[in-house]
From TrEMBL:
The active site is at C239. Belongs to the class I-like SAM-binding methyltransferase superfamily. C5-methyltransferase family. InterPro entries: BAH_dom (IPR001025), BAH_sf (IPR043151), C5-Methyltransferase (IPR050390), C5_MeTfrase (IPR001525), SAM-dependent_MTases_sf (IPR029063). Residues 523-532 have a biased composition (Low complexity). One of its GO terms (biological process) is methylation. GO terms for molecular function: chromatin binding; DNA (cytosine-5-)-methyltransferase activity; DNA binding. Residues 13-132 form the BAH domain. Its EC number is 2.1.1.37. It is found in: Nucleus. This is DNA (cytosine-5-)-methyltransferase. It comes from Eutypa lata (strain UCR-EL1). Residues 513-539 are annotated as: Disordered.
Length: 539
């Protein structure tokens, strides 16, 4: 027996002439390139394929160096290669140059979604010229789906629990198969942010505990969705109950956070959706220690007991276009009789030094899921790349950046902290107080005593990450609820050469929030939340 949903490769016979495909052209490389299948032929016993190159526009057209990384050019270049070098299909759709690119084609290649606006013409002198694509000349291309033609009635009606600002739910909607009709969160500003970015009269919000909403649903409240209406349930239950950042997970508050997983299962029991998705930190899965207390295993047992087919996914944010170090476990479940969705395949590479690892342990000795090193069409996006277009605001004392209103600090930046951050060297990269004082010794004793807390504080210990700077060629660290530049555990959120913590907009970029999306007034906050690319995959 073979589980198709776990297989990232495709059989050669699955492909057809006109398919847009990703191809492994260099045996020693993990890079994938875009092509279109022109024809198949045999050479002896080997199967070969004739391919048309689909070039990355930003790499070949000098007039558009800042074009999206997933914009392609239909070229006149034909190559022949072994059919087994084809990795998988991808989505490619042609748009007029003046048309606004819709999701998922506007998301920089996440979900293997690409688009074409221009084609290559070779002039008489042999130089390439790039002109608007002619639809008739591209008729052979089997284009990706048209998102504007998907009717609302064809989408699954979704309920988004623990919705936060909506990055998770809108990422699911970007795949064009789900439309969130109901949403819930206990934080007022989160609900307002969510609703500010939805279409009018499509989604009903509920501000309050998920337990209160469940009670209303059980009592038949007209404001709550009724059984039979919800076809998809998603949720990211509060992670502090499982996170490594929570020092004491046995308090009443954290026990309550942990118990909300049971509330999610109760929603599944009540509504019996076609599909559902739960996410949380990977520490929710207990592989060796405290197996009897593994909440995740108990949840899987409950979902399977309701008759659902389940898949456990171990996914990294950076593998799906986010410039942030964040790993999550997902429980994807499918109602009996329905086809199990295919596992999303990473589109971006791992940063250097990322270890391969397994997640969880089943009774047969196999892991639930694992991190693999797979060929991808894109390299990971570093912190510096993600914010390269933002202006230098120095210490952000002006508190406003023309054209980028969210390019300002999310916290009060006192004169004392400002002086402390200024003393942390910018070179070598990723410096913090501990490295500057205990390691390199560039922080003098008099400066330490005058500006920094006294010895004995965790923030100034040898293992502290307080006053740490982000490495520009690496990922942003995990974005947390509070942005404390001197925090001993998550204090590595200061800019690599500017004397300040990262701004709201930089945190939004790390999380995958598009710049144009609105944020509700109130306490400025961009995290925590799951980067949209993790769940942004076409159906």
């Amino acid at each position: 027996m073979k589980c198709e949903s776990r297989d990232v490769s495709q059989e050669q016979d699955d492909f057809k002439v006109g398919d847009a495909v990703l191809v492994h052209t260099e045996p020693t490389s993990l890079d994938l390139e875009n092509f279109m299948i022109e024809s198949f032929f045999d050479k002896g016993t080997e199967k070969f394929v004739s391919l048309r190159k689909l070039l990355r526009r930003r790499l070949v057209d000098t007039t558009t160096p800042k074009s999206p990384p997933n914009e392609l050019v239909y070229s006149e270049r034909i190559v022949e290669i072994e059919a087994r070098s084809i990795a998988r299909r991808c989505l490619v759709r042609v748009f007029p140059p003046d048309e606004i690119i819709p999701a998922p084609y506007d998301r920089s290649g996440v979900g293997d979604a690409f688009f074409i606006t221009h084609r290559e013409l070779i002039t008489e002198d042999g130089n390439p010229q790039y002109v608007p694509a002619n639809f008739d000349s591209l008729r052979l291309l089997r284009q990706g789906f048209n998102p504007s033609r998907t009717a609302h009635s064809e989408k699954l009606r979704g309920l988004d629990l623990f919705c936060g600002g909506g990055n998770f739910g809108r990422g699911l909607e970007d795949g064009n198969a789900i439309e969130m009709r109901w949403t819930n969160d206990i934080w007022r500003e989160a609900i307002h942010t969510y609703m500010a970015n939805t279409k009018p009269d499509t989604c009903t919000p509920f501000l309050g505990s998920v337990d209160d909403l469940l009670r209303r649903a059980l009592l038949g409240d007209k404001k709550a969705p009724r059984p039979g209406e919800v076809q998809f349930i998603s949720g990211g239950s509060p992670c502090p109950g499982f996170s490594l950042l929570t020092i004491n997970k046995t308090t009443d508050k954290q026990r309550k956070n942990q118990s909300l997983v049971a509330s999610f299962a109760s929603y599944v029991d009540l509504y019996r959706p076609h599909y559902g998705l739960l996410e949380n930190v990977i520490q929710m899965v207990q592989a060796k220690h405290n197996r009897d207390e593994c909440v995740f295993s108990q949840l899987v047992s409950a979902i399977v007991g309701l008759g659902y087919q389940t898949q456990i996914l171990f996914m990294d944010a950076w593998s799906f276009g986010a410039s942030q170090s964040r790993s999550r476990v997902f429980l994807l479940f499918t109602a009996p009789g329905l086809r199990v969705p295919k596992i999303p395949i990473p589109t971006h590479s791992h940063p250097p030094g990322v270890p391969l690892r397994r997640l969880g342990l089943m009774s047969n000795g196999q892991s639930f899921s694992r991190r693999e090193r797979l060929p991808t069409p894109f390299q990971f996006i570093s912190a510096a790349e993600a914010v390269s277009d933002l202006p230098d605001i120095q210490d952000s004392k002006a508190d406003y950046s023309v054209g980028f209103p969210d390019h300002r600090l999310a916290i009060g930046y006192t004169p004392a902290v400002r002086k402390q951050v200024t003393q942390i060297p910018t070179q070598p990269w990723e410096m913090n107080f501990s490295k500057a004082y205990y390691g390199a010794g560039v922080l003098e004793e008099s400066t330490r005593r005058h500006l920094f807390p006294s010895e004995g504080k965790s923030r100034v210990s040898t293992i502290s990450r307080g006053w740490g700077r982000v490495h520009p060629r690496d990922l942003f660290p995990t974005i947390t609820t509070s942005c404390g530049p001197s925090d001993a555990r998550v204090g590595q959120i200061n800019h690599w050469h500017q004397p300040r913590p990262i701004t709201i907009l930089e945190a939004r970029r790390a999380q995958g929030f598009p710049d144009h999306e609105r944020r509700a007034p109130g306490r400025p906050r961009a995290g925590p939340g799951d980067p949209r690319g993790l769940v942004r995959h076409p159906a």
